[in-house]
Specification:
Blueprint: H1 2-8, H2 13-22, H3 27-33, H4 37-54, H5 68-76, H6 78-105, H7 110-123, H8 125-137
Helix pairs in contact: 2-3, 2-6, 4-6, 5-6, 6-7, 6-8, 7-8
Pfam families: ABA4-like (PF14108)
Protein name: DUF4281 domain-containing protein
InterPro entries: ABA4-like
Length: about 140
């Protein structure tokens, strides 16, 4: 069951990443990926998992966010792991969409943006750091 949920929560996210990378100028990309639709949908998924863990006790004993031990316990339970993973999925996509918009606004070509997007997809904050460094090297500054 949990393994299936893991696969299902990728359904809105992976096509969005493909659209960002392969169809950056498409109307569908603007309407789906650059709107709040997917983050809202994924936020609802996150809320369901969070509610299952916090309200309905679907969490490991000692789970919480107040200590490293609490975080480790939180992530040791399938619901906690899915909650955290949904969080990563929505935030990485949100950041990737922002990078794509900002890169276009700063005049960076899409071919040079694709590796940054892939880095963001796989390693989240490293992709954001790469984009910020690219801005700095190009003399675009850090003001977003």
């Amino acid at each position: 069951m949990m393994a299936n949920l893991y696969l299902v929560i990728h359904l809105p996210v992976l096509p969005a990443w493909l659209m960002l990378i392969l169809l950056p100028e498409a109307k569908a990309t603007r309407r789906l990926v650059h709107s709040g639709l997917i983050p809202l949908l994924m936020g609802a998924v996150y809320a369901v998992f969070l509610t299952a863990g916090v309200v309905f006790g679907q969490a490991a004993e000692g789970a919480g966010m107040g200590s490293l031990a609490g975080i480790m316990a939180l992530m040791s339970h399938p619901v906690g792991a899915l909650t955290g993973w949904a969080h990563f999925l929505v935030f990485d996509l949100f950041v990737g969409a922002w990078i794509a918009r900002d890169a276009r606004a700063q005049g960076f070509g899409h071919a040079g943006t694709v590796p940054v997007l892939l880095l963001t997809l796989v390693f989240g904050p490293l992709g954001l750091a790469a984009h910020v460094l690219r801005r700095l090297i190009a003399g675009k500054g850090m003001a977003f």
